[in-house]
């Protein structure tokens, strides 16, 4: 009955009426009320999905007692409360247990892990607390473990390292402390999300064996380390987010080995030295790959997996509205680039460090980059003229550095630029012509540069201002001609721009172009993507 507009309560006698039912899927409706206890009578029930409704109350005792046959139980995105201990008392057959986005309280019962068959556990977004039980290591087949957005605290038990088939680990937004688990067994791990906890100490070297890693997020912790050189060995890495720790030392050249990296966030650390000039080795979206990132996880909207779940390669994110959320600051907004969107988003943020030296001109080769934030460092020297090649850039923030020289006038060729700041540097000379995107930037993009002149700044460039003569008739005529030719050339440029844009959209792969249009507003894009499955643009 899933994905309809049904409402009302689940009939109280459903379990007595349909005692032999094996699969009950009522997800994505508007059912309310509580689960009728009679469901516990369905002794052959293997799959029960009630997710995405407005159900509430506690899980009835009868279900908890009669759940032994269940292999899939999804109650996500409702308003259930009570303790998860009472969800199912004998989980012998449970493969997949998703209780995320509810109001469950209490601790994780160790007996939850008394089941070596469990492959997927998602109890994120609840009010659970206490420690992660060491028995977690007993669920040897676990491939997905999501405990995010709860109140878990204490150390992560080292037994977690026994989970050698783990693909997806999300412990983010808790109060976990101590070292990051140092597991050389995590060879299959693709996603490791530990952000917003109290982890401290080093980035464990053992993670160098996680050569399948696609996304590593340790933002907002207390990691006190250098960026390890072995990170260059995680060659499949697409997303590396380490903002808000105490990373120090240089950015190692080995980082440049991460050729497929498209999101890099090292902001709010204590990194010093220069940006490695080899940074142009990184892809930052120059080519678009789909296969890697859409292993049936997120990107296929109407993906449904077989009843006998083989989670080795299958995630179930379609069930979690939040999906796998990676937030990356761009355009002065915190946008959440979700799922498939990540295939099209690319950015580098090294803001708020102590980086010095010149901005490597090689960075101009990062033609797929959408967002660059080098602000609040001590970069000196000129803005590389090569930046005119950053043809996809939408957000460029070089503010609060020690840059000098002029602003390359070619930057006006960056047609997608919507946020631009070079404020608080030592730049001099003229501001770029108020053409194209640059007609939209105001004073704040340039302020704090003593020697900069020209609109939109109030300071005009005196030296180049024409010496005014007393007007005579000839001049007036000339003026009129000038105005005519001005409008003429304006209309001309506009037409050229319009035709150019249409041309680009038409002649590059049409699907790619379509994608771009939707990527412009990622949130909108995500919704469209969910609604119409538009992201099949391969
Ligand atoms: C759980 O159910 C299985 C299969 O019915 C049974 O063998 C086992 O003893 C039960 N475990 C507990 C703790 O009741
Ligand atoms: C774990 O499960 C086994 C078999 O179902 C059962 O005999 C045992 O009592 C359970 N242990 C705990 C701690 O629940
Ligand atoms: C790695 O996993 C295996 C199998 O689960 C386990 O026996 C071993 O203890 C684990 N290694 C570590 C360091 O935990
Ligand atoms: C980078 O991505 C491409 C496309 O997904 C893949 O073929 C390639 O193996 C990846 N590179 C590495 C080093 O994993
Ligand atoms: C239940 O329905 C939802 C929504 O249609 C679907 O995604 C899910 O795969 C279904 N579950 C099973 C086990 O068929
Ligand atoms: C760049 O980073 C700084 C510091 O993190 C932030 O304040 C600023 O808003 C960012 N710029 C853009 C354009 O996102």
Helix/strand layout:
Layout lengths: L6 E3 L4 H4 L5 E3 L4 E4 L13 E3 L4 E4 L3 H5 L6 E3 L4 E5 L12 E3 L4 E4 L13 E3 L4 E4 L13 E3 L4 E5 L12 E3 L4 E5 L11 E3 L4 E4 L13 E3 L4 E2 L15 E3 L6 E2 L13 E3 L4 E4 L51 E6 L2 E6 L8 E3 L4 E2 L15 E3 L6 E2 L13 E3 L4 E4 L13 E3 L4 E5 L20 E3 L19 H35 L2 H10 L2 H11 L6
Parallel strand pairs: 1-3, 2-4, 3-5, 4-6, 5-7, 6-8, 7-9, 8-10, 9-11, 10-12, 11-13, 12-14, 13-15, 14-16, 15-17, 16-18, 17-19, 18-20, 20-22, 21-23, 22-26, 23-27, 26-28, 28-30, 29-31, 30-32, 31-33, 33-34
Antiparallel strand pairs: 24-25
The structure holds 2-acetamido-2-deoxy-beta-D-glucopyranose (6 copies).
Describe the structure.
It comes from Cinnamomum micranthum f. kanehirae. Keywords: Cell membrane, Glycoprotein, Kinase, Leucine-rich repeat, Membrane, Receptor, Repeat, Signal, Transferase, Transmembrane, Transmembrane helix. It is a single-pass membrane protein. The chain crosses the membrane at residues 486-507. The protein has a domain at 226-287 and 326-467: Leucine-rich repeat, LRR (right-handed beta-alpha superhelix), CATH 3.80.10.10. The protein has helices at residues 14-17, 61-65, 473-507, 510-519, 522-532, and strands spanning 7-9, 23-25, 30-33, 47-49, 54-57, 72-74, 79-83, 96-98, 103-106, 120-122, 127-130, 144-146, 151-155, 168-170, 175-179, 191-193, 198-201, 215-217, 222-223, 239-241, 248-249, 263-265, 270-273, 325-330, 333-338, 347-349, 354-355, 371-373, 380-381, 395-397, 402-405, 419-421, 426-430, 451-453. The strands form five sheets. It has a 15-stranded parallel sheet, with no helix packed on it. The longest helix is centred in the C-terminal third of the chain and has 35 residues, at 473-507. Strand 24 (325-330) and strand 25 form a beta hairpin. Helix 3 crosses helix 4 (510-519). The protein is α/β, with parallel strands linked by helices. It binds 2-acetamido-2-deoxy-beta-D-glucopyranose (6 copies).
């Amino acid at each position: 009955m899933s994905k309809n507009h049904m409402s009302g309560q689940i009939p109280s006698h459903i379990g007595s009426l349909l005692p032999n039912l094996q699969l009950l899927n009522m997800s994505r409706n508007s059912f309310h009320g509580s689960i009728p206890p009679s469901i516990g009578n369905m002794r052959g029930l293997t799959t029960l999905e009630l997710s995405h409704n407005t159900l509430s109350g506690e899980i009835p005792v009868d279900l908890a007692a009669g759940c032994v046959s269940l292999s899939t139980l999804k109650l996500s995105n409702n308003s259930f409360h009570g303790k998860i201990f009472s969800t199912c008392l004998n989980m012998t057959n449970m493969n997949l247990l998703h209780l995320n986005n509810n109001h469950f309280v209490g601790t994780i019962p160790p007996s939850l892990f008394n089941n070596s068959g469990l492959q997927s556990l998602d109890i994120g977004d609840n009010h659970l607390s206490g420690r992660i039980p060491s028995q977690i290591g007993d669920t040897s087949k676990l491939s997905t473990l999501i405990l995010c957005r709860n109140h878990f605290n204490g150390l992560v038990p080292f037994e977690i390292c026994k989970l050698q088939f783990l693909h997806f680990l999300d412990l983010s937004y808790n109060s976990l402390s101590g070292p990051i688990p140092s597991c050389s067994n995590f060879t299959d791990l693709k996603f490791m999300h530990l952000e917003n906890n109290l982890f401290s100490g080093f980035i464990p070297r053992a993670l160098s064996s996680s050569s399948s890693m696609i996304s590593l997020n340790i933002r907002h912790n207390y990691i006190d380390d250098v960026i390890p050189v072995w990170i260059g060995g995680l060659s499949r890495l697409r997303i590396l987010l380490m903002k808000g720790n105490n990373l120090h030392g240089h950015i190692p050249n080995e980082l440049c080995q991460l050729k497929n990296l498209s999101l890099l966030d090292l902001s709010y650390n204590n990194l010093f030295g220069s940006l490695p000039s080899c940074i142009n080795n990184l892809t930052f979206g120059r080519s678009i790959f789909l296969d890697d990132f859409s292993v049936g996880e997120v990107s296929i909207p109407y993906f449904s997996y077989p009843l006998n779940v083989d989670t080795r390669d299958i995630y179930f994110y379609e069930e979690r509205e939040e999906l796998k959320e990676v937030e990356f600051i761009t355009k002065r907004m915190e946008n959440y680039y979700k799922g498939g969107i990540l295939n099209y988003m690319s950015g580098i943020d090294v803001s708020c460090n102590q980086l010095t030296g010149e901005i490597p001109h090689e960075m101009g080769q990062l033609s797929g980059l959408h967002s660059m934030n080098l602000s609040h460092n001590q970069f000196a020297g000129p803005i590389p003229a090569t930046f005119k090649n950053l043809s996809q850039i939408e957000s460029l923030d070089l503010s609060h550095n020690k840059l000098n020289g002029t602003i390359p006038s070619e930057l006006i060729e960056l047609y997608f630029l919507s946020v631009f700041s070079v404020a608080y540097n030592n730049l001099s000379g003229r501001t770029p012509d108020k053409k194209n995107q640059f007609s939209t930037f105001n004073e704040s993009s340039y302020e704090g540069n003593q020697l900069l002149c020209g609109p939109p700044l109030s300071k005009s460039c005196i030296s180049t201002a024409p010496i005014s003569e007393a007007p005579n008739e000839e001049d007036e005529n000339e003026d009129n001609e000038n105005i005519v030719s001005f409008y003429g050339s304006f209309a001309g440029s506009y037409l050229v721009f319009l035709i150019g844009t249409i041309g680009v959209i038409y002649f590059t792969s049409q699907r790619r172009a379509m994608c771009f249009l939707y990527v412009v507003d990622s949130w909108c894009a995500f919704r469209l993507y969910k609604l119409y499955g538009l992201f099949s643009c391969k």
